User: Fold these one by one.
Assistant:
Number 1:
Amino acid sequence: MAQIRHLYPGGNTCHGFYSFYDYMVSPQAARKIVLKGGPGVGKSTFMKKLGEDFAAAGFDIEYHWCSSDNESLDGVVIGHQQFCVLDGTSPHIVDPRFPGAVDEIINLGEFWNRTAIAKHRSEIINLSNNIARCFERAYCRLREAAMAYQEWQSYYEEARDMAAVNRNILALAQDFLPASAAPGNCRHLFAGAITPRGLVTRVESIIDSDYALYGIKGNPGSGSKTLFDHTLGILNLSSYYAEIYHNPFEPNEIDIIVLPDSKLVLLNISSPFNYMERLPSIKFKRLLDFDQFSSLSVLDLNNRLLDHARSRFNSGIDGAVSFINIAKQYHDELESYYVPAMDFESIRLARQEIFEELMQIMSNNLSKGVNIK
């Protein structure tokens, strides 16, 4: 049975739109197809249908979702990172790196009625400008949340016992990391996103029930960031393959490290994304609460300020979600001017040709004994 995973290659963060598109597929991929075209031209449907066709044929699929539209894809990865089809339009503009040899552009704009679209020129321009303004305002709110987050961190940094924190980081990292693991470079993505529907994750699709879970608890600034940074450093130095899932709000922090070959997971269960709600059957092999290394007397002195910082952080996130939701409504209206002008039957035929072509490559690899699933 095909394994289906749900990931995010980019996100709406406190630094604006943040992309890990370069990690969507391995540089050794046999084929990468970049879709171009405006909103509503069928890019997401193209990728969904292609993924469904390959999943029905038994191939593993990764759906890489759009952080600004809960129903839209930014990409689909087929097999063992053999093929990738992705949206190469703004804000994640992608151009071929090895044109013809690996990468190919399919412009779905070739299948539209330009005259029909041009009739709505002013509406399209106004809606596009409104969408841009909404995201500017959303990112302002996320920057406000980041300032509150930094203040929140500062109170726990002041209160923490660094000697105790460091001892536990060294001990847990040593316990978590195996003596050997699958070689390779780390792959960086998001397991969730700040979307029009709020904070969303499908982390259960990337962590199987038989994985050993090392859980980390603690407020920002209590020590978890140092642990993840230390662990990533060792993985890089050891050239071990790992999946690194960054915090969808602050991508400079890590929420999850997965070692698929060893079936090990290091997970921050204090993340605002509340991953454990999606992992009810996972049991902890070890759980470390960094808050226990914080001085309660120091925290008590700053209790009122702490509550205020948390409140401002949550307000910033809520405000950003509201603006992203409004942008989605404008985007839906924008698509309504493109959808009637599209020749979707011709797009379906083009997608079928791509499916048959990629299946032929898959069949050739199978005959050579290449692992493609």
Note: The chain has a mean pLDDT of 93.
Number 2:
Amino acid sequence: MADIQVNTPAGPIDAVLETPSGEVGSEQKWPGVVIVHDVFGLSPDIRNIARRFADKGYVALAPDLYTRGGARKCVAGVFRALLGQSGVAVDDLLAAREFLAAQENVTGKVGIVGFCMGGGFALLLSPNGFDASAPFYGITPKKVDEVLGGACPIVASYGKNDPSLIGAGKKIEKVLSAKGIAHDVKTYPGASHGFANALPEGIAGKLVKITGMGWRGKQAEDAFGRVFSFFETHLR
């Protein structure tokens, strides 16, 4: 793991870069993956997920969208960029893609994976130069029919018990099917929002757990397995 900075139009941001183990200094190349964090930021969970993708043979970059002031100051602005479909956070993520694509150990193919808020960005940016997208319970963009025009292949995962995204999986699948975009969309019974993420420690995590959200091992492992299989097809 390397804590680095990535240059963006609004200045450098912090990020974590994970590379497949045992290959430092080699001439081997791998696909890149941008990991977009949830509302909790660049947490230990997101760092572990970046490492998980690296262990599967991807150069994984997890940018910190809260670099410019922490979660309290930045979360509202990041959500405005997501809902408004433009802004600093969007530019940050596109810069992260460009950073990965330019690395000597990256093949040039770059995917995007996001969780909750990050899943919304993974959907929103799927037509913007990425080669595959994996939104986990991502917020459905406004005018989704227009947004997903020209999107890259998408593997999406939702929880059936997620009160914030009722019917989202079916809606996304319908749009992707109509547009002829390669996809794999699955909604998991028994899972709610955040089922593939470990909750943070402290009061925030306890409050979220009360709602039934958070990690569900069986569903989470199936979802990650689908993503890795899909990325094998579309990024390698």
Note: The first strand starts at residue 2 and ends at 6.
